[in-house]
Structures
1.
Amino acid sequence: QVHLVESGGGLVQAGGSLRLSCAASGRTPSKYTLTWFRQAPGLEREFVAASRWIGGITYYQYYQDSVKGRFNISRDNAKNTLYLQMNSLKPEDTAVYYCAAASFWSGSYYEVGEYDYWGQGTQVTVSS
């Protein structure tokens, strides 16, 4: 079992920055796929960014096109924490952000159904 808790959300003006954190407890997920999703009101939950374990201490990152160059996903295995640094925020980034964990890598990493564990979410609101 992996328990995930997000934090760091809030209200920010367009162009601003936020850093989200996702603290993991339970089984140490250093080899897990850890991913950020978001869900805006009335819309389906969508993929934002993923961190894939390759081997050793090597990880690859994957991003939704709309956040490339603005968001950065990283992880600190010593702290069992996943981060999402969000820069140049836009009103369309407003959503509840969730972290998710899977014990394996899937080619469908962008799909909600591929993940076993979810956090409760943290609200990000970007004002124009």
Note: The first strand starts at residue 2 and ends at 7.
2.
Amino acid sequence: QVQLVESGGGLVQPGGSLRLSCAASGFTFSKYAMRWHRQAPGKGRELVAAISSAGSSTTYVDSVTGRFTISRDNAKNTVYLQMNSLKPEDTAVYYCNAQFGYAYWGQGTQVTVSS
């Protein structure tokens, strides 16, 4: 069965960095685009970044452009989200997502940016 397991979240001060990882299994990872979403308290889920199957194309929501970088290692079936210059408004639960006929989600990892 499809599994997506996020890790790497935590508490960080404004201006700090975190690297999220999402380990995928149960499907041919290298065939599909992958996405990171986030959901802040009291808000809807928001697409943050996406990467094509080969990793050659990436897109970002405007609020993270220049600060976040999505990447993937198809040999390790893992997608990453490098987050730099973090702001309090980046506080959210971050979810890994794959879509092929159905939307698959991980359990999420909490990112808290606070001094």
Note: The first strand starts at residue 3 and ends at 7.
